[in-house]
């Protein structure tokens, strides 16, 4: 959206009903806690770790970090297990409390899974995995839909020290295989089918296709039966979940994990190459997500908390599964989409389930806002207290709609800025304390030390500055490495501005110290809150026999935030046609996922390149954004005429 990232001179105080009884109810408390978290970092995090986590062996030191070599460790020497934090600790006081409140694809299809039931599910599956040879440190891929068993599968891996790698259910067989191969997964946990907006998602069939070519590392698959649609079961490899756990005891001794032992890998797109396996660990990650979940949303014991993201993304890992379950909350798991059966689905669900804290993405807010207020006002929404947003900058117009129409001015909005790599919230208000500005993530979370640098890496001091967002020190939930490629971790995040973690985002710090994210400054796209790399999409396009070269850029899109614009140069002998554009879209879908499908494809005769052969994306971006007059100086290009041709051809984009 055009107005994203520009400061808006409006301030909204947290409503009194939200402030009342809040954990942090005023800015003095926030400021004092924040000050301690950076000035007296060890003591602050020691105290938080002791309050939020239960170590079976206490840690010796709080943190050791080197932001040049990427050696980062928190709570050194401690022993614990993430599944114990999320389950066992709650059984005595909260055994019968609903842990997961599931809302299926059809409105009103619900399942309540108590902490005790979830614990049993997890323990049985953990035993089944162990019996099949899964050991501490082994990788297990999970390719499932939004069902409670998905959370159980993650926690079962954690329990035996296996590293889970959840693959978003929208990814293609090719993408599944790439991820399985990259981390040599020993097993896959999947389900027959998922459901989304009235449609079936062929999860098991996709896994079959992913594993069709030999040469993979997968020894067995466990298949959860959800829809009951018959699926192909490969003898000797595939087994039903219910059969696998049938005779397993409901108790499985947890592996004692070192604070720094890996908990999971989650693949995410960068500017170059294939998606990388972001690795998070047991103690630091868990503490960060629990602590931020608690403070940012101001979680209370009887909250019905709902994050409407997908567990296949980091938002779901941190704020559907680990944060809320670590805190003993009731977490809603939503299988459907915001527009099914109509644009009122969220608020219908809010009323039926009594949801008090609701967390979604700007793209969903925009998609339902345009369908009309009546979809909102026909529901009461009186249970709501806190609204959250995540995934991309929210434009002030959508923010105001969320605040005024959905929240009727009675709820706080927390705009949480963070990344797969950061594990948890980095910049966000606290629901009960922070004055809100529409479109700003506001202020750093505890322990987070943001800074704004110019292109040369000089830190811009003071307020009213614009540049690139970095972090000056590590924080507990920071990724530890790229799985199997530590150099890539250092190269990608720590070398652009040596000694600092570079987010890849541009930002403005306003006169009050509030941060406004202006979006990615690299070749990463944020499409409907899904993160994609332009290089991956280009790779899929070039894989088609007709394509000589392709360049992909983002452009502002009313609903998706960012749309995908592909410039495609054909090989000799091929001609541009709608048919070919369709084939290319299909190729991207097949190679990556439907979410990566280009919105616009423009066939071009040539791409703007420097004399050394580098594609000038800046120019392509301006053209895709509909600002050809701002392409800037093109005289240094190898062939300046291509720019004019491309501008002339915009109207013929398909
Ligand atoms: O550009 C920022 C944007 O999403 C990127 C991270 O994407 P991903 O790793 O998929 O994680 C998304 C969910 C945490 C960031 O580099 N982003 C995320 N949240 C916000 C945001 N941009 C502005 N405001 C936000 N609240």
Describe the protein.
With 654 residues, the chain is α/β, with parallel strands linked by helices. The strands form 8 sheets. An 8-stranded mixed sheet has the order 12-11-8-6-7-14-15-23, with helices on both faces. A 7-stranded mixed sheet has the order 5-4-17-16-18-19-20, with helices on both faces. β4 (98-103) and β5 form a beta hairpin. α2 (27-39) crosses α3. The longest helix has 17 residues, at 115-131. The mean pLDDT is 96. The protein binds adenosine-5'-monophosphate-propyl ester. Adenosine-5'-monophosphate-propyl ester binds at residues 268, 314-315, 390-393, 415-420, 441, 503-505, 517, 519-520, 526, 531.
Set down the secondary structure blueprint.
Elements: H1 16-19, H2 27-39, H3 41-52, E1 61-66, E2 71-76, E3 79-80, H4 82-94, E4 98-103, E5 110-114, H5 115-131, E6 139-143, H6 148-159, E7 163-166, H7 173-182, E8 187-191, E9 194-196, E10 199-201, H8 203-210, E11 220-224, E12 238-240, H9 241-245, E13 257-258, E14 262-268, E15 276-281, H10 283-296, E16 304-307, H11 314-326, E17 330-334, H12 345-353, E18 357-360, H13 362-369, H14 374-377, E19 386-390, H15 396-406, E20 412-416, E21 450-453, E22 465-471, E23 481-482, H16 486-494, E24 501-509, E25 515-520, E26 524-527, E27 530-533, H17 534-542, E28 547-557, E29 561-570, H18 578-591, E30 600-604, H19 617-624, H20 641-649
The structure holds adenosine-5'-monophosphate-propyl ester (PRX).
The site of adenosine-5'-monophosphate-propyl ester has 22 residues, from helix 11, strand 20, strand 24 and strand 25.
